[in-house]
């Protein structure tokens, strides 16, 4: 699946992402119409999808990554009936899971609930149907446990989750008996809320999750006879989703910084005052490259590296691994594409950062906090203030790009302590 | 039913953010006793006796690095290095969440005592040094400490005690230190900007000495303001597209919801 991630490449820059998401929604609507699904199922699934796309757009810094949504909407088109179309649907779901493994949790929960609610596998004996339902939910819990990083907190603000969850519960509770067709969308929203407590590598996981659940909710309620009459296919889809979720490591990595071989040979031993930082490695981002030295401008501001593909170390400050906060900066992008720290914001607490020093020592740091702050409110004290232990700060740009000022509005600051 | 549902949602969602990482507490040892240089210190959690940290023997006037500990009660015990005898001195201290504590051995070995004081590692103004003085210089039981321009840094500082924090200009400077009411000695110290330090006063053959121990260090030149590290090539553009697309999504969602409701009613 890494190949799939590679093929998909960099997320489309805004507004392409949101336009794609809107197109996906329209496509979803027309496709479900072509499938002759009941109008209410079509409407409900489109509403769920559109709300979630909006939610992602409003609550994430980078806006919408519409690729997974488009894939899933296309998947819905193929999912109507027939062996070949079902296979394509399964492939679309797998691709969405490859983009954001957290989607597997929602999909498995939904399938499990529908099996238990007798919306799926209706031709199977009750015992087997329930067993499969329980197994799917257990698998979802397993994937959730694998992905969960409790320290990171939910990807979307808690207030939004409370509202979303309350709506799902209210609608679901009120209509569970009288409006059976609403059950799958309600389960979809519930599963989505659940997904948010598994802080995945990227915030955009919400959208593919929403799209996947909405499409599946609509298609499966209508077409489960055609789709799930074949036990082999069901098994293959479930196994495929689980295996994909387990294999795919994280968010696709757009950055290919200069290889480590570019680093100048490390001198055997330097005087204490001449020790510097020469290379950085962040396993989570698959990032490994040399470090330049950063200075300050005439007005005292810290300068970013000249080369957007290389990070730099503030040599007027603390040497990484010595007591105090060492500062490493890097560009989020160049004029034409991603820079060395493009994926920095997707770091999460407990992720490892290694800095190789010119004396040959490797200073290892564990991420404690990742935050995006407005440049006007740059937390100078928290970034540069004295600390009792060796610490590290990684800094890049984030937020919206102001074309007139040719500058980003925010800074992304990663704080880490020595381990 | 509404209230119940909301309550259930609240209960389900509330604990997650609260479970965020608690503030870490830190502990270190100061060896402030001239003839206890071969003592090592064990710090054992009262709640979990297996959770024991050993801080190796330090020289007179030395401070160990900080160790991260969970908040709670700890038994501090000193022993000669490598010994398994019952502790010579044992004391229980309470570590509050998010605090930094220095545990110090003070006084002559015969009447060996353990004391502790809280360190305040608040950042100074980036152009200034923040210091305090620790009296570890027997036999003088009380010392007066004055800064380069005669300002009082600590008055009648008892043996084994830490004075209040004060802000001094960085660079090479001199402190006047002497027993209360007696002539003072001039002690040179070098301080760096943007650092929090403890100045440990020790006594020896050459009289009083001042030793600067950095509690918390930072870059001595702090660049003001943010970092401009992007050229916009992968940027999220601000413009009409966002509003337009968001509006389309809202309309789509609203229309779908309305139609859903209408179809549901007509069934």
Automatic annotation (TrEMBL), chain A:
Record-given protein name: Class F sortase
Keywords, ordered alphabetically: Hydrolase, Membrane, Transmembrane, Transmembrane helix
SUPFAM superfamilies according to UniProt: Sortase
NCBIfam families in the record: class_F_sortase
TM annotation in the entry: 14-32, 87-115, 127-148, 155-177, 203-220, 232-251
UniProt cross-references to CDD domains, sorted A to Z: Sortase_F (cd05829)
A Pfam family of this chain: Sortase
Native source organism of the sequence: Pseudonocardia charpentierae
């Amino acid at each position: 699946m890494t190949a799939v991630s590679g093929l998909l490449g960099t997320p489309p820059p805004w507004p392409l992402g949101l336009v794609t998401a809107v197109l996906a929604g329209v496509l979803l609507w027309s496709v479900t119409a072509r499938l002759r699904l009941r109008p209410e199922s079509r409407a409900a699934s489109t509403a769920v999808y559109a709300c979630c796309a909006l939610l992602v757009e409003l609550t994430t810094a980078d806006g919408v990554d519409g690729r997974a949504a488009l894939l899933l909407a296309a998947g819905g088109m193929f999912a109507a009936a027939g062996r070949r179309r079902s296979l394509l649907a399964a492939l679309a779901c797998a691709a969405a899971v490859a983009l954001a493994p957290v989607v597997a949790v929602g999909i498995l929960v939904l399938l499990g609930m529908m099996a238990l609610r007798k919306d799926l596998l209706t031709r199977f004996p009750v015992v087997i149907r329930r067993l499969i339902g329980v197994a799917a939910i257990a698998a979802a819990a397993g994937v959730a446990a694998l992905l969960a990083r409790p320290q990171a907190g939910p990807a979307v603000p808690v207030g939004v989750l409370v509202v979303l969850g309350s709506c799902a519960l209210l609608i679901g509770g009120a209509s569970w008996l009288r409006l059976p067709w609403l059950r799958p969308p309600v389960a979809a929203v519930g599963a989505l809320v659940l997904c948010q407590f598994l802080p995945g590598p990227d915030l955009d996981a919400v959208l593919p999750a929403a799209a996947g659940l909405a499409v599946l909710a609509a298609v499966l309620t209508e077409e489960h006879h055609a789709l799930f009459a074949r036990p082999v296919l069901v098994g293959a889809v479930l196994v495929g989703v689980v295996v994909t979720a387990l294999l795919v490591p994280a968010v696709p990595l757009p950055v290919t910084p200069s290889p480590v071989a570019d680093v100048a040979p490390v001198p055997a031993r330097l005087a204490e005052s001449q020790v510097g930082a020469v290379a950085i490695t962040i396993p989570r981002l698959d990032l490994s490259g040399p470090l330049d030295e950063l200075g300050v401008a005439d007005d005292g501001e810290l300068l970013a590296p000249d080369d957007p593909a290389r990070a730099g170390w503030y040599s007027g400050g603390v040497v990484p691994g010595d007591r105090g906060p060492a500062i490493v900066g890097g560009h989020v992008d160049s004029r034409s594409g991603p820079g060395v720290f493009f994926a920095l914001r997707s770091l999460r607490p407990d992720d490892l950062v290694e800095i190789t020093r010119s004396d040959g020592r490797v200073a290892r740091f564990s991420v404690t906090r990742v935050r995006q702050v407005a440049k006007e409110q740059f937390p100078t004290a928290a970034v540069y203030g004295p600390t009792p232990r060796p610490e590290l700060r990684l800094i890049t740009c984030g937020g919206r790009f102001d074309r007139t000022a040719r500058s980003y509005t925010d800074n992304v600051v990663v704080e880490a302590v020595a381990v | 039913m509404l209230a119940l549902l909301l309550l259930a949602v609240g209960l389900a969602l509330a604990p997650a953010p609260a479970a965020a990482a608690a503030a870490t507490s830190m502990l270190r040892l100061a060896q402030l006793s001239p003839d206890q240089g071969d003592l090592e210190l064990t710090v054992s959690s009262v709640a979990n006796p297996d959770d024991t940290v050993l801080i190796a023997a330090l020289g007179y006037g030395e401070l160990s690095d900080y160790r991260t500990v969970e908040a709670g009660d700890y038994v501090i015990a000193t022993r000669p290095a490598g010994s398994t005898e019952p502790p010579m001195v044992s004391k229980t201290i309470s570590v509050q969440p998010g605090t930094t504590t220095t545990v110090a051995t003070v006084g002559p070995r015969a009447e060996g005592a353990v004391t502790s004081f809280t360190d305040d590692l608040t950042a100074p103004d980036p152009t200034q040094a923040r210091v305090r003085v620790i009296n570890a210089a027997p036999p003088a039981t009380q010392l007066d400490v004055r800064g380069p321009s005669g300002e009082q840094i600590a008055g009648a500082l008892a043996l084994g005690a830490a004075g209040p924090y004060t802000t001094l200009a960085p660079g090479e400077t001199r402190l006047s230190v002497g027993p209360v009411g007696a002539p003072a000695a001039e002690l040179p110290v070098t301080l760096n900007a943007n650092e929090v330090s403890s100045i440990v006063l020790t006594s020896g053959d050459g009289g009083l000495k001042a030793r600067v121990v950095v509690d918390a260090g930072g870059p001595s030149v702090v660049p003001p303001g943010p970092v401009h590290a992007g050229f916009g090539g992968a940027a999220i553009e601000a413009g009409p597209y966002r509003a337009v697309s968001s509006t389309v999504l809202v309309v789509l969602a609203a229309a779908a919801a309305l139609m859903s409701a209408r179809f549901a009613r007509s069934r």
